[in-house]
Amino acid sequence: MYKVVIGLEVHSELKTETKCFCSCENKFGGEPNTRCCPVCTAMPGALPVLNKKAVEYAIKAGLSVGCRINEYSVFERKNYFYPDLAKAYQISQLEYPLCVGGHVDIEVDGKKKTIRLDRIHLEEDAGKLIHSPNGTMVDYNRAGVPLIEIVSMPDIESAEEAVLYLQKLRATLLYLGVSDCKMQEGSLRCDVNLSLHKEGEPFGTRTEMKNLNSFRAVYRAIKYEAKRQEEELEAGREIVQETRRWDDNAGKSYSMRSKEDAQDYRYFPDPDIVPIIVRKDYIEKIQKDLPKLAYQRAEEYVKNLGLTEQDALLLTNEKYVSDYFDQVIKEFNEPKFVCNWILGEVFKKLNTLDNEEIEILISPKNMAKLLKLYHAQTIGQNVARKLLDELWGTDDDPEIIVKEKGLAQNNDAKGLEEIIKNIMQNNQKAVEELKNGNQKTMAFFVGQAMKATSGKANPKLVNEIVQKLIK
Ligand SMILES: [Zn+2]
Fold it and tell me: What domains are defined for the chain?
């Protein structure tokens, strides 16, 4: 039996206003080469100036995962030639990264497992190659966008653990507000280093798979590569240290380049950028102002709002859901009721949407109004569900719609009793069956009462009245 050893390198673009070393706008997309300047396209004589916000964001990320922040860190040039890299070097950090150590804790089979971090350093992104039938073009809009690279120790032992680690990391960065972590736009990317070895033996030769851009791709690539290496070893062959390309459509990885032509990046300190000195009080201030992370919000939901631990975890998985919940209960302070509705009906709705456009498209204020109507039984569950669909993507006021469309539930016990008496008189056989304990007949009476009231009868009330009448 082989043990799998995995280390992950996660690249996360920082959500600063401007790029890392120039004042170009830092934003995804746009007409190619409209968000660049002499600095990020490496015109002769152009000089980089470090974006302070990028340093602050990197420190925030580091502190939230328990890194030690280096008060002295240095930018280096990582030299390699590629058309998307105009300077023929990337500004990065090697010897003196901004953040060192730290850890991310995950829960595996109900037990806490610590994944140690090696470092988090700050660097710049490269441009993008656009391949077309007429040739390959370069877009430098992304060149110079600030990135943090989060390097884990080889503490991950399965594809499942890798995904848990990435989910935790992504949630942390989102709660901090330092990255939007949109994997489909490449603002969170992952390199996987993987090797196999037998218990008690030293680590085996590792391979690297670069730029995986979905959790699913990471999961499948790890499963595939672990199996491939096992088959190689079982067949008595040696693992070649190499970079492999994962093809998500084919579900296979291919050899890209081996160690023989592995590059020597000839790192050296960038003479255009002075070392960064971060003062202790600056670090302390960032530490003090760190926002609450997912687990801290979940703890508060349990402690202060009386939610179950499981519900609290589900609500805080995604920051936008937790933010939304907080806003709704500000308007309508029934946490448990609001939580059930969000985890049930709203999640059902979100599940029907495309991954890229997941967003809750009803203002918290209108959602609170809708839930108040439902909670007070002014509208029934079915109408509440229909209203959710109807209000989605609009700014309509649920109170006005309920009034205008006459959707209010019929809670008039006296009137309903008359209607039900009438139904019973015409359906003596069903009455007998119900008296004999056939509860299925109840659905028949509720259905008839609904029919007689154009669907507006309060089903709970109908149920109570029928029970009362057959006694
Ligand atoms: Zn620029």
Answer: 2-283 (no CATH), 292-405 (no CATH), 413-470 (1.10.10.410)
